[in-house]
Please model this.
Amino acid sequence: MNHPWYDAPIATPDSAVLTAARERQAQLTKPPGSLGRLEELGMTLAAMQGTQQPRMDKVWITVFAGDHGVVAEGVSAFPQVVTAEMVRNFARGGAAISVLARAWDARLEVVNVGTVQPLEELPGVLDARVGPGTANFVHEPAMTVEQLNEALAAGHDAAERAAINGARLFVGGEMGIGNTTSAAAIAGSLLGLPAAHLAGPGTGLDAAGVNHKALVIERALAHHRSDQPLTALQRLGGFEIAALVGAYLRCGQLGLPALVDGFITTAAALVAARLRPELTVWLFYSHCSAEPGHRRLLEALEAKPLLDLGMRLGEGSGAAVAMPILRAAAALHAGMATFAEAGVSRA
Model:
């Protein structure tokens, strides 16, 4: 019997390097603990990379795009065509994540895993369409098992490309009108929470719109609720969310740290972590989104986000904003002098 690729072992950070990193931090020219979480992050990165000179110089960003059949239920303030239009905006370099990738000299690619209509050839956009958007999960499962596996594989391949090209950090982003509804449905399924605790404004719904969105999610959960991660993903997910799950799983297998963005990517991280709990050591959480359900997800994952700026854009933008914090942590751990090296007296 062939086991699926995501059953392969998850890598383990180097415990000996972590011990040495703690010893190094105690010797650096600063009062103990004075750099706060940067010290913990630097030690973690050292263990992940197996060296006391961790580096965050090569960052790979993949934005997965896909459409959602549940948009037919009126859950978004924006029309479905915006997904494809934004993919074109990514290709032209006009989106927030495009600007941030240029600013930080990060590699950006976009993977179309399921826009409703096929797209023309676009620079920096890979075609991996699993289907013309997902089905409306109020009435039927969002995708077939075969489509789920194809979308997971698209994420696997993105993480592989990142590793092959020498990336030291993977950032996954997403674009898909309706995908906050999908993320809230997945969270409700796996956490056993009511949709009203998870549904938010998404692209800009008013209070009445959010209430309607929660009711739509409850109707879907009445048919499709499951505490099994891949079943919940197949019934309620999006192709781009499934691709993110695949990317995080493959990052863990490759020993490639991943910086999780906001609400939708954290829903994908929850699925991946429920499937392979040992994966969580490879995931950093960039920020706490203004989407109300995000805090619930972070609490369930016992995750400590790096920032809380009221962002809720998606695309990987929150992760891109937080990424320099990891760069700073790595640089400080690698580059600071010890008391002995600097000839500085200790307390």
The CA atoms of residues 109 and 315 lie 11 Å apart. The two ends are 62 Å apart (CA to CA). The first strand starts at residue 59 and ends at 66.
